[in-house]
Structures are given as C-alpha cells and as structure tokens.
Specification:
Blueprint (H helix, E strand, L loop, with lengths): L35 E6 L4 H6 L1 H11 L3 E6 L2 H9 L5 E5 H11 L2 E9 L5 E8 L10 E4 L5 H12 L11 E4 L3 H9 L6 E7 L13 H9 L4 E5 L3 E2 L1 E6 L4 H17 L1 H7 L4 E6 L6 H9 L5
Parallel strand pairs: 1-2, 1-3, 6-7
Antiparallel strand pairs: 3-11, 4-11, 4-12, 5-8, 5-9, 5-10
Length: 301
C-alpha cells in the first residue's frame, strides 16, 4: 500500500487561530530587533530543527544579520507567531497563508516552491469511470474533512454549483485518509473520487496524461478513470514575511529563495525534499482563491 505525502494544505485547528484576537498590543517579538526570526513547523522534532541550520545560514548570509530559527509545534502556532509579529518569516502552506492574512492583513508572500518540471500550482480533480452516470450520482468520494484539495475545495465547489456534471443533490463522503480512498478505488468502488494534482497556472486545464500527485496514483491503479471536473489552480505554498520587514530585506530574501537550489543545495534539500524544482517569486493576489474557498466552507469545518 503506497504512502502519500500530502500537499501541506491542512486546516486542522484553523479556528484555534481566533486566539489572535487576544494578541498583546505592539511587537511582542521585538526584544532584539537585530535578530531576524524564521519560523518553521518542526512538530517538536529536534533533528529537523538541526537539519534546518544550513537554511538559516543561507538567509543569514543574504541578510547580513543574525538569523535564528523559531521551531513551531504546529501550523496554528506558526500562524499566530508571524501574524502577531513575534517572528519575521514563516514557511506557510497556501491555506495557512490565507488564514493568517485574513486575520491580520499583514503577510507578504515572497516565493513559492515548484516541482522539477516547474509546476507551481495544485488543482483538485474529480475522477470517474466512463460508465458512471454522473447526473444520477449523489455520492462523491472525498478525503478527510481537513484536507483542502480532496474535501474542502470540492465542498466549496458543490456549494457554489461549479461541478455541473453531477446531480444537484450530490454530497461528499469523507474518508479517514487518502490511503482509505485508495483502498476503496482499488477494490473496485464505483463512486466518483476527488484527488489532487500538480499543475501549471498558465494551462487552462490538466489533461489525463499530465496528472501527477494522488490523481496519478489513482489513475495508475484504475486506468479507466477520467477527469470530469477540475478546480482553479492554487499556489503550492507561501514563504512569507510580516509586513514590518523592510522592502530591501524582502528583495534579499526573495533572491535568496530563488537562488537557493544552486547556491545552497544542502539547505534546499531540507526545505524542499520532494518537489525539487526551486522557488519562484510570488505575489499577494495569487492566494486570493484560497480565501474564497475558506469563506465558503461550513462553520463546522
């Protein structure tokens, strides 16, 4: 049974970020303004924190000032830290960036990773067997409720009546994991299924032979599956700074990320171990579609 590395687009605990409303006034992290603080989710893994040292050193060289790592337990802690200006920089998923930006309007994306063939975005896709009568299908197989691309994007699309091929009363059947989704599909399940794929933003659609990620895993297992719907593209992630970071430092950091694969390969291997395509500059407007999905979700997600 293959294991799947998810796209870092999890929203578990997103509403815990309401704690931001209780921020202390002023800059809580400004005890030493000479130190530039970089946040990363380590989950308490001290070995990962140690492995990030080449990345910290690369940024320190670019900024020509001391840089220290802020090891966050989880995404909620990381969002809280950068949104409340306790840290200067955070490596965020696209979803985490949208949540933080919606709460403080203070985050500036610098760059986003890409795949080896320079794909910078993700799409949700709905796959179905050709013999499936979609107009009569009311159950659509999805990932767990916290998964952005295989549950939340589809949920918002159904709410907004964007998936024209399926019955108006169609609903999602959430699975406990993508492994569970794979097991159902490989066992011959007939329900249409949501999956995710990497994509290039400039392409209007992704063709079947261009699928990657979890969508490719399912199609390789059941070759008769066809794409019947796909979402708009979403940026893979957002290495971001707080708006208090000066423009000159933003430029230096963006350049450092764009050059990191060639200039600091050890650091690059740590921060992008699976994608391998280097970083490309990002802009605030490229993440607006994340927020539109989040706003369309039911209150209990």
């Amino acid at each position: 049974m293959p294991k799947f590395k998810l796209s870092s687009c999890k929203l578990a605990g997103m509403f815990l970020a309401i704690a931001l409303l209780l921020w202390p006034k002023g800059n809580a992290g400004a005890q030493n303004t000479d130190v530039f603080r970089v946040g990363w989710i380590t989950g308490g893994d001290s070995l990962l924190a140690a492995r990030l040292e080449p990345f910290v050193a690369h940024l320190q060289k670019s900024l020509d000032r001391p840089v220290e790592l802020f090891a966050a337990r989880d995404g909620t802690v990381l969002i809280d830290a950068i949104a409340s200006d306790q840290i200067d920089y955070a490596a965020l998923s696209g979803t985490a960036y949208a949540i933080g930006q919606s709460l403080c309007n203070c985050l500036v994306p610098l760059a986003s990773p890409s795949t080896r063939d320079r794909q910078t975005h993700l799409r949700s896709v709905l796959l179905a067997k050709p013999e499936t009568d979609l107009s009569e299908t009311t159950t659509l197989l999805a990932g767990q409720s916290a998964d952005f691309l295989t549950n939340q994007v589809p949920n918002a699309a159904l709410k907004n009546a964007e998936i024209k091929a399926v019955a108006t009363e169609a609903v999602l059947e959430a699975s406990p994991s993508l492994e569970a989704v794979f097991d159902i599909v490989s066992a011959g399940g007939d329900h249409p299924v949501f999956a995710w794929t990497y994509a290039q933003a400039e392409l209007e659609i992704v063709e079947k032979d261009e699928l990657s990620g979890f969508a490719a895993v399912l199609v390789n297992e059941v070759p008769t599956l066809e794409i019947v719907w796909q979402s708009q593209p979403f940026r893979i992630a957002a290495h971001s700074v707080h708006r208090s970071v000066p423009d000159i430092d933003r430029q230096k950091l963006t350049q450092a990320l764009v050059e990191i694969r060639e200039e600091a390969p050890l650091a690059f291997d740590v921060i992008s171990p699976t994608l391998g395509g280097g970083f490309v500059p990002a802009a605030i407007g490229e993440y607006a579609n994340y927020l539109s999905v989040i706003n369309a979700l039911p209150a209990d997600q």
